[in-house]
Amino acid sequence: MNLELLLHFLKFDIQTSSLQFDDWIARLYCSNDLTDRFPAKFKSLKLFVESQDSPQRIPISSPEQGVFAETNLCNARCYYEAGRFFSSNHGDYWHEMDYNLHTNAIRANLGGRFLQSGQAIISNLIRPILQSFILPFYGLRTLHGAVLCKKGRTIFLHGPGGMGKTTTAVQLLKAGYDLLSDDGPFFFIDGGSAKVLSSLDYIHVTENTLRLFPQLRTLVVGNRDNREKFAVRISDLKNNGAWKEPHRITHYIQLQRRPDVAFPRLRKINRNTSHRTLLDESMVIFRRAQFHHSADPFGSYSQFVFDLLGKVIQGAEPYELEFADHHLSEVPFLVDQL
Question: 58 lies in which domain range?
Answer without folding.
Answer: 2-138
